[in-house]
Design brief:
Layout (H helix, E strand, L loop, with lengths): L18 E14 L2 E15 L29 E5 L5 E3 L1 H6 L3 E8 L5 E10 L1 H8 L7 E6 L5 E5 H4 L5 E6 L2 E2 L9 E3 L12 E7 L24
Bound molecules: ligand MTE and molybdenum atom (MO).
The site of molybdenum atom (MO) has 6 residues, from loops.
């Protein structure tokens, strides 16, 4: 599959910022929440930026849609959780770390074909995050907004509550690096990597999942690996 994100490289060559012009001419359809949604992405021109990341762990490719990785400042960073909740919060990094810590080892799969097995993650389960804000009766989806605008994606509440979904702040025993989304990224091993929003700064509760950045550009809103719902 020739995809825009597929232009990035995880090897040690310095690519600098190389902008590709990519043309797609295809129509996509998907069945989403009982509705057929048709998106015509004819001849969209997408600039894609390659990134060279020092200290890259073998196997990983670093993706950004903008080439500008957000910087993390421990003192000013906040995670906003809002939308259909009784009590919106702005968590500091220290407050995030003080929540019950979860750990797991899981595989990571990008839809373009590369994988990294046995990634060690540490972070917070969504049931613990959501207990802080108390979602309302209508809340059924979470939208994860990246500090790298306009990247975002969403999950249903049920998906977010899977036992191995988490908001991760550590990878392989160390705080998330900037390239991997510091200080926090979404991890959901059953789904393709584009669901794994990096540099998460807001989680917005809503009634239905929103169509994510890459999904608006042709990726399937069904991101289950192996197409569980497809
Ligand atoms: N903010 C942001 N999050 C993102 C992306 C991105 O470009 N920007 N790319 C996604 C895709 S397609 C994949 S496969 C993974 C790659 O994670 P990595 O850059 O840590 O290897 O990040 C996901 N999250
Ligand atoms: Mo990806």
């Amino acid at each position: 599959m020739d995809t825009p994100e597929g232009n990035t490289r995880g090897d040690v060559r310095r690519y600098g910022r190389r902008t590709f012009l990519l043309t797609t001419a295809a129509g996509f359809s998907s069945l989403f929440w009982g509705q057929a949604v048709w998106t015509q992405t004819a001849k969209i021109v997408l600039p894609v930026v390659d990134v060279f990341a020092p200290g890259l762990i073998p196997g990983w490719r670093i993706y950004t849609i903008s080439g500008q990785m957000p910087t993390f400042d421990r003192n000013t960073w906040r995670l906003r959780i809002d939308g259909l909740v009784e009590r919106p919060v702005d968590l500091t990094y220290d407050q995030l770390l003080a929540l019950p810590r979860a750990e797991q080892v899981s595989d990571f799969h990008c839809v373009t074909g590369w994988s990294v097995n046995n990634v060690h993650w540490a972070g917070v389960r969504f049931r613990d995050l959501l207990a802080l804000v108390r979602p309302t009766q209508e809340a059924a989806a979470l939208t994860f907004v990246s500090a790298e605008r306009p990247y975002f994606d969403s999950l249903t509440l049920d998906e977010a509550l899977l036992p191995d979904a988490m908001l991760a702040y550590e990878m392989d025993g160390k705080p998330l690096t900037r390239a991997h989304g510091a200080p926090a990224r979404l991890v959901i091993p059953e789904m393709y990597g584009y669901k794994g929003v990096k540099w998460v700064e807001q989680i917005r509760l809503g009634a239905i999942p929103e169509t994510g950045y890459w999904e608006q550009r042709g990726y399937d809103t069904d991101a289950w690996i192996g197409g569980r719902h497809g």
